[in-house]
């Protein structure tokens, strides 16, 4: 069952014209796994998102710290689909209007050269001092993963990776769940979705997220018609909260049903 405040909020926006429905990926429409490439969307969720995107006046976006190539792979979506994909925390998108509408500059050759050096340094750090941690290279950043490791192994790995990032110019440290990313991009999910919103002009926006980087969206989606939903525990600026990925599947299915009724009677 969904919390009453969430049901009321969905009911209030179900017939909004247009409506933007955006969601984070990991921890929201997909669960967690120690292997970042082993995760799959929760059963039925992609079909619900396709159903929403097929309804008149509904725009759907998936926004992630994953890079675009990986996001396409894991969602099974291509650039041709009605669903917009936004990757690398906003630095990449299947919709060019997102990048052109953001005030942050695009990645340069210098950024990528810096990222190569950073990746080498992080891999050295992990190999020599934290061999159980794992490194993930992405389009605009490099991440160290500690999911499944004991706290006394994970904590120092994340701390030393954080110190490395903080000691380098032009590098942003992004905190996540059992992951810490060093990014050379200034993009953030909030700015990306504000840019997408400008192209749509939504009367209402729904956003679901579970992690620190989703707070950039929660903070920017402050119009009366915005429905922001934190998934799981933790401090948040979101207006509503649900428990887990099962509740996300329920919420999206509920929104699809309400929207269909609102449009077809
Ligand atoms: O913005 P998101 O879609 O939430 O992506 C955030 C990070 O997700 C991935 O890491 C997380 O999921 C992994 C697979 O379950 C898990 O092993 C890891 O502990 C989680 O933090 C992804 O690998 C990162 O690149 C994303 O930044």
From TrEMBL:
It catalyses: alpha,alpha-trehalose 6-phosphate + H2O = alpha,alpha-trehalose + phosphate. Pathway: Glycan biosynthesis; trehalose biosynthesis. One of its GO terms (biological process) is trehalose biosynthetic process. Signal peptide: none annotated. One of its GO terms (molecular function) is trehalose-phosphatase activity. Its EC number is 3.1.3.12. It is an enzyme of class 3 (hydrolase). It comes from the Bacteria. Keywords: Hydrolase, Magnesium, Metal-binding. Its cofactor is Mg(2+). PANTHER family: TREHALOSE 6-PHOSPHATE PHOSPHATASE (PTHR43768:SF3). Belongs to the trehalose phosphatase family. Removes the phosphate from trehalose 6-phosphate to produce free trehalose. NCBIfam families: HAD-SF-IIB, T6PP. This is Trehalose 6-phosphate phosphatase. It comes from Intrasporangium chromatireducens Q5-1.
């Amino acid at each position: 069952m969904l919390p009453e405040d969430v049901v009321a909020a969905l009911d209030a926006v179900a017939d909004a014209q247009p409506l933007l429905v955006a969601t984070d990926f990991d921890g929201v429409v997909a669960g967690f796994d120690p292997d970042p490439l082993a995760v799959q969307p929760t059963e039925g969720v992609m079909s619900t998102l396709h159903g929403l995107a097929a309804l008149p006046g509904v725009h759907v976006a998936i926004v992630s710290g994953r890079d675009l190539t990986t996001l396409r792979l894991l969602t099974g979506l291509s650039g041709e689909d009605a669903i917009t994909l936004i990757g690398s925390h906003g630095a990449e998108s299947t919709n060019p209007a997102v990048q052109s509408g953001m005030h942050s500059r695009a990645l340069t050759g210098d950024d990528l050269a810096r990222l190569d050096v950073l990746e080498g340094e992080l891999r050295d750090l992990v190999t020599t001092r934290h061999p159980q941690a794992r490194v993930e290279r992405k389009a605009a950043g490099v991440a160290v993963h500690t999911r499944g490791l004991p706290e006394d192994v994970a904590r120092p790995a994340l701390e030393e990776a954080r110190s490395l990032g903080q000691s380098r110019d032009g590098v942003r440290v992004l905190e996540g769940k059992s992951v810490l990313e060093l990014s050379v991009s200034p993009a953030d999910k909030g700015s990306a979705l504000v840019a997408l919103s400008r192209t749509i002009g939504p009367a209402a926006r729904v956003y679901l997220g579970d992690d620190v980087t989703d707070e950039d969206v929660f903070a920017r989606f402050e119009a009366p018609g915005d429905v922001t939903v934190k998934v799981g525990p933790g401090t948040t600026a979101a207006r509503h909260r649900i428990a887990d990925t099962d509740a996300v599947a329920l919420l999206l299915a509920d929104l699809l049903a309400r929207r269909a009724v609102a449009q077809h009677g």
